[in-house]
Amino acid sequence: MDTITSTRSLCVFCGSREGSDPAYREAAIRLGVLMARRGVRLVYGGGSIGLMGVVADAVLAEGGEAVGVIPDFLMRSEHGHRRLTEQIITGSMHDRKRRMFELADAFCVMPGGLGTLDETFEIITWKQIHLHELPIIVLDIAGYWQPLQALLAKVISAGFADASILDLVSVVNSPDDVLDAIATAPSIKDGVVTSHL
Ligand code: AMP
Predict the structure, then answer these.
(1) Is the CB of 49 within 6 Å of ligand 1?
(2) Residue nearest to atom 11 of ligand 1 (CA)
(3) Secretion signal: which residues (predicted)?
(4) Which tens digit of pLDDT belongs to each residue from 156-182?
(5) What is the distance between the alpha carbons of residues 48 and 31, in angstroms, rounded to a whole number?
(6) Does 74 contact ligand 1 (Cβ within 6 A)?
(7) Does the C-beta of 81 come closer than 6 Å to ligand 1?
(8) Which of 35, 25, 77 is nearest to 59 (CA)?
């Protein structure tokens, strides 16, 4: 079985706001449509607002499956989505991230704020220490994630990590490339490790 057909669930991290560039929203809609058409289930933060809500609505409108994972105390402020295939309510933010991780076969990072950064760095660093080997696709819309790429380059040039940390993520510029990038994501089996491991 190839990686795309075995990618039953894609966990998408993205903003609880839509951001200022309409390209972010357009990309979220396109990604949701493609996931539904390819039979890839969405796992995400469970809100109905921001890019989160946009991608979930696109998946559902195209006949796909969307599973939300949201802490009970955020159901109101993040407007917990009421029409999902399944909405999993957790007791804490940590439980939310653990459940999202358990349900995912791969991750996609879309533009977002501090919450998106938190989720993204956790899943990248878990991969660095070999807690998982799942593909992590950074969807760089309109250059949004270029500062992240510059930061990783700085981490390497300043001697805090090996250049092979770049293999932890795959960067694409279009939602049309996300599912193919999952299939070609580099293996990190014998590669990236932290310097002290
Ligand atoms: P933001 O990118 O700040 O709009 O947030 C995107 C999503 O990340 C929202 O659903 C936030 O609730 C969520 N989030 C923020 N911080 C955390 C955290 N520490 N653990 C889990 N989810 C978080």
Answers:
(1) no
(2) 115
(3) none
(4) 999 999 999 999 999 999 999 999 999
(5) 16
(6) yes
(7) no
(8) 35
> Mind listing the domains of the chain with CATH numbers?
3-183 (3.40.50.450)
Q: How far is the CA of 70 from the centre of ligand 1 (A)?
A: 10
Averaged pLDDT for residues 94-103? 97
Report, in angstroms and rounded to the nearest whole number, the Rg of the chain calculated over CA atoms.
16
Spatial distance between the Cα atoms of 45 and 67, rounded to a whole number of angstroms = 8
Q: What is the pLDDT of residue 1?
A: 43
**Surface-to-core class of residue 49, CB atoms within 10 Å of its CB (0-12 exposed, 13-18 middle, 19+ buried):** middle
Q: Which among 124, 95, 94, 83 has a CA at the least distance from the CA of 107? A: 124
Q: C-alpha distances in angstroms, 147 versus 52, 152, 194?
A: 22, 9, 22
Of 30-39, 115-124, 164-173, 188-197, minimum mean pLDDT range: 188-197
The alpha carbon of 55 is separated from its chain's Cα centroid by a whole number of angstroms, namely: 12
Q: How far apart are CA 15 and CA 114, in angstroms?
A: 8
As separate numbers, helices (DSSP H) first and strands (DSSP E) second, the chain gives 7, 7
pLDDT band for 191, please (50, 70, 90 cuts): low
